[in-house]
């Protein structure tokens, strides 16, 4: 294995987006399995996510390796080249992909095809590529319908389930536990996942958001009275203190990252559930403040429902019974002993009225997910500029016996013969990670992914590299001119790596070209 990457599925989902950010900030090398959408390639989808995060970060993020595939297809829909790359570079998988569709009687459709079929396909890929370390994101609701304490080491207790989502995730977790080729399996079981505890951000509107959206539609249809208050009379068969196990996505991501980075935690099962659940009263008080409304009565579990109410508001709510029913009863109580053993010091956001209010405001501003995210702005895709994959180096740079003292080969050991290897880590819009090999014939070979950590690496901002490639002629339409220009720049970069005393060369010390950078519009791909 030339380098160690973690392969992440479900990267474009809500939890996946946070895992990308947090794992990259921790210095993890990531490879992402991503499906193309109707309007964006897999790489473009990931670029949009990274640029969303970079708006609040002081430095550009590394660009993970993006492999186009589909979780519901055999071997995840990957090409043979991508499968071979995974076998050579990835040491573990975080299987995070899932769908939150609740009902599906046809097992050839959702949620079965993603939650169960996708897990089966992921296991087959792991077996085929020799990966024996799996981190599986399950759900706390594999417990099904329970009214006792649910322990982290429990799975099959003969339980029944409220919906097909719970059952599909239960069967998927049984599947991964039965995979005898795995040397290590770590299972993460989050409960209901809400948006960001600070900003309210979410990219998906399932679960709690279905109920919030229903109330938004219904309450906005009630005109304010003379006092400016919207009167929404309804009698709920609840006490008001029934807890729901809601957790913030940013906390879930931080906890998974902690457990992933803690070898002693590997092999365990963890309930990512809250110390205090959000209550029906929290939700009602948030609605009171958000809509300036009044009229909800908590009548207790045995009270008859008010099916109509003076304004018909109660009737409208109960007509949406399938959405409402999930909030009639309390959630199970989950044991968290193993979680607290390794992550008790991670601050857990308290999700009460204020958090629900924040979620509501963000969702309405986002038009419940209908607001289109901005297209990623990429002055230049560096991968296109490094074409073709093999370029000739100038005679001033050579490999083999001319490798300077202290040089290393791809394994990080001193080398006096064979190809010279260094990493090219291009951060920011349009960047990526590559291994560059300089052979005895003075030809560079550019391959996807960084070499191992011991090899020298050049870290450079994508905009800087794009300008230097453009200025040097690497973007020329004449392929020969482009090839020679790319070779000259790679020679400069590898020279800087050779002369460095450590494994990483910052662009401040790497060679530069004394030319004015071209206008950014020249670099923009049409």
Mean pLDDT: 84
Low-confidence stretches are: 306-310, 400-416, 507-526
Major β-sheet profile: 7 strands, parallel
Strand order within the widest beta sheet: 3-2-1-4-5-7-12
User: Residue share in helices?
Assistant: 25-40%
Helix/strand structural class: alpha/beta
How widely separated are the two ends?
37 Å
User: Which word captures the global form?
Assistant: globular
- If you compute it from the alpha carbons, what radius of gyration comes out, rounded to the nearest whole angstrom? 27 Å
Q: How many individual helices?
A: 16
Could you tell me the number of beta strands? 21
Beta-strand content bin: 15-25%
Distinctive features:
alpha/beta, 7-stranded parallel β-sheet, 526 residues, 6-stranded mixed β-sheet, globular
